[in-house]
Amino acid sequence: MPTPVQPRAERMRAQLRDEIVQAAAEVFAERGYHRTAIADIAGRIGVGNSSIYAQFAGKRALFDAVIDDAMRGVMALLSADNAPATADTLEAYEGQVRRIATGFATALGEDPTVLRLLRTLLVESDGVDEELADRAAAFTDAAAQMTSAYLRHGVTRGYLRADLDVDATGRVVNAMVFAVALDLARQGATPEEAERTVDATLALFFTGVRG
């Protein structure tokens, strides 16, 4: 059967929603959650506040949609060949980590919005509401567990140190990566500077974890 054609009104509504989320991402990244108003986002794309309220209950719901969209982009870099259980040798793992690091550095160089949004989520969430604070904590825990899964797989396969505390190391590595990425984004680093920073970070990381 042919695929049903989406009515034009629905297509336009979906397109407007995407434009709103993109504009909101930019404004939240620039101004932070508390200093952003619905009017700021509406003005970015030249619509009235009512156009946003027709699709989102308010600023909080819109921020959730922005974070959801950003997380999908982050997770795309950690799938397929870059999933935790796909590397069976140290060489393969080093290649995997470099692909992920380079992918993030490239993405941030092209658009630092995602990192700034994560900073907004982690720094401002306690001052918004308990649900958002819980979401920020859940994100931090999930990121640490993901990194620990990579490390645990390497220990199991024998190419990372047998005595590696994978849970503690996962948290430390994530804190280091986030701090480095935020610094690069704040500086507006050139591709060459980003590559040097990635090389230095990976050299430090592998010196500590390889078997």
What is the number of beta strands? 0
Provide the residue-averaged pLDDT: 85
Low-confidence stretches: none
CATH topology of the largest domain: Tetracycline Repressor, domain 2
% residues in beta strands: under 5%
Give the H and E element order: HHHHHHHHH
Structural class: mainly alpha
- What is the makeup of the main sheet? none
CATH architectural designation of the largest domain = Orthogonal Bundle
Shape: elongated
Q: Please compute the radius of gyration using only Cα atoms.
A: 20 Å
Proportion of residues in helical segments = over 70%
CATH class of the largest domain: Mainly Alpha
Total domains: 2
Terminal Cα span = 56 Å
Number of helices: 9
Structure description:
The chain has 2 domains: 1-59, Orthogonal Bundle (Arc Repressor Mutant, subunit A); 77-209, Tetracycline Repressor, domain 2. The protein has helices at residues 8-31, 38-45, 49-53, 59-76, 90-110, 113-124, 130-157, 166-187, 191-209. Helix 1 (8-31) packs across helix 6 and helix 8 (166-187) packs antiparallel against helix 9. The longest helix has 28 residues, at 130-157. It has 9 helices and no strands. With 211 residues, the chain is mainly alpha-helical.
Quick summary:
By secondary structure, the chain is mainly alpha-helical. 74% of the residues lie in helices and 0% in strands.
